[in-house]
């Protein structure tokens, strides 16, 4: 198995053994701490918290949330560590060396592989009724469960929504598309005068929901399955919109780096983006008149993607009770309200989204609505391999260099060869 090879080659087993011995020697503060992490001697406990960097506003919100926590827990100090580059590589290296943070961010995309190694602490035993687990959006929480155990609680997320230029749709006499067929027809009508009807991000992270809309599985039994007829058929309209209809475009083709920029510059009338695009457009293109809607249905079914990040606890932490106090505050109702108050991230708790009004917000309501039925960007430990091979070959089909079925067949074969050789 991949996880066994990873642990053996990088020494995690030794690290865990050392932490167990340390616990037997009484160094784990769970044996001498109250529920707030206070030590028996009255000394402060320092808990390390690691995450990747955000924009200045997000960092300010996080520091405010931590400050509020420390005020309520005077015997716990939080040491915040921002890892700006190669976050997961740094985290894995530190976990291997026995110097991992007590609490840290974990993306749902990376969660299955890391959980398999045993370095993440199961959290069910710490949970109290007051914590209100049922308040979390179920798909977001389930992404951090393995064999019925919970290894992380989601701190925030974003789904995908349809962003559309109100003026362009109005001038073209186009209604907001509610089905995928309507979107395709709308894109044709909106493509004129150097503007494309639809801007596309031709990558699996954005199209996983569409790929499985015909009943197929992108990943099956831990292996790539995206060359199946159901998946190819579901993705074929994306290819046809670009190569036959000439109504869609990807960012590099119009000299930009991503969909939000393409949309803001008026080079595409519609794009599918996440919550991150809202503050970007407000800051960079404040004059654009746009709105959002839930993604168009396919075969009468609603679907979207969710990109989900949780706080998790290091299984080798010597400060587990204090770490849980921090983790549960950050993902609790009070801490989450502070962290998500400005809408840069969406709260994974339903009650917090309602309290902040995001479920009724003109731009964010469609994103919030999608959380209950979203497909979370997480599909087993081999997804990183599967993604790389899909993206490399799908783009060639999108640009018209080869048929989609041929491109995905080659990509699937290569992905599964890599998986089998681990």
From TrEMBL:
Q: What would be one Pfam family of this protein?
A: SBP_bac_1
BP term (GO), one: maltose transport
Q: Name one GO molecular function term.
A: maltose binding
Q: InterPro entries from the entry?
A: SBP
Q: Which UniProt keywords apply?
A: Signal, Transport
Question: GO terms for CC?
Answer: ATP-binding cassette (ABC) transporter complex, substrate-binding subunit-containing
Which stretch is the leader sequence?
A: 1-23
Spell out the family assignment given in the record's similarity comment.
Answer: Belongs to the bacterial solute-binding protein 1 family.
Q: Which PANTHER family match?
A: MALTOSE-BINDING PERIPLASMIC PROTEIN, MALTOSE_MALTODEXTRIN-BINDING PERIPLASMIC PROTEIN
Kindly provide the name given to this protein in its UniProt entry: ABC transporter substrate-binding protein
Q: Which organism is it from?
A: Bacillus canaveralius
Q: What is the lineage of its organism?
A: Bacteria, Bacillati, Bacillota, Bacilli, Bacillales
């Amino acid at each position: 198995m991949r996880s066994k090879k990873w642990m053996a080659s990088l020494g995690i087993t030794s690290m865990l053994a050392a932490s167990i011995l340390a616990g037997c020697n009484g160094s784990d503060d769970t044996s001498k701490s109250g529920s707030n992490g206070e030590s028996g001697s009255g000394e402060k406990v320092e808990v390390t918290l690691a995450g990747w960097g955000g924009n200045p506003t997000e960092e300010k919100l996080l520091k405010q949330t931590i400050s509020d926590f420390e005020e309520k827990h005077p015997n716990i100090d939080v040491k915040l560590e921002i890892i700006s580059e190669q976050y997961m590589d740094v985290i894995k290296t530190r976990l291997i060396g026995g110097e991992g943070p007590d609490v840290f961010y974990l993306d749902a995309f990376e969660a299955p592989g890391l959980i398999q190694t045993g370095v993440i602490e199961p959290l069910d035993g710490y949970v109290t009724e007051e914590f209100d687990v049922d308040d979390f959006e179920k798909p977001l929480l389930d992404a951090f469960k393995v064999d019925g155990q919970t290894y992380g609680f989601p701190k925030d997320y974003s789904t995908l929504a349809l962003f559309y230029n109100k003026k362009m749709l109005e001038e073209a006499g186009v209604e907001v598309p509610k089905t995928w067929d309507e979107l395709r027809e709308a894109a044709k009508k909106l493509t004129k005068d150097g503007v494309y009807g639809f801007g596309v991000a031709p990558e699996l992270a954005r199209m996983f929901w569409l790929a499985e809309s015909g009943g197929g599985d992108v990943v099956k039994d831990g292996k790539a399955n995206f060359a199946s007829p159901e998946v190819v058929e579901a993705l074929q309209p994306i290819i046809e919109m670009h190569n036959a209809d000439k109504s869609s475009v990807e960012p590099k083709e119009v000299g930009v780096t991503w969909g939000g920029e393409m949309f803001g510059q008026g080079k595409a009338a519609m794009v599918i983006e996440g919550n991150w695009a809202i503050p970007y457009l407000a800051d960079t293109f404040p004059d654009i008149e746009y709105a959002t809607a839930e993604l168009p249905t396919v075969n009468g079914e609603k679907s979207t993607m969710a990109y989900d990040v949780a706080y998790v606890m290091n299984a080798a932490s010597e400060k587990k009770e204090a770490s849980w106090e921090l983790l549960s505050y950050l993902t609790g109702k009070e801490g989450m309200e502070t962290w998500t108050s400005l809408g840069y991230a969406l709260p994974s708790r339903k009650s917090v989204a309602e309290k902040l009004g995001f479920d009724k917000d003109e731009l964010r309501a469609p994103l919030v609505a999608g959380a209950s039925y979203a497909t979370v960007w997480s599909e087993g430990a081999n997804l990183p391999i599967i993604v790389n091979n899909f993206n490399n070959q799908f783009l060639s089909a999108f640009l018209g260099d080869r048929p989609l079925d041929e491109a995905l067949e080659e990509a699937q074969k290569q992905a599964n060869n890599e998986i089998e050789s681990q």
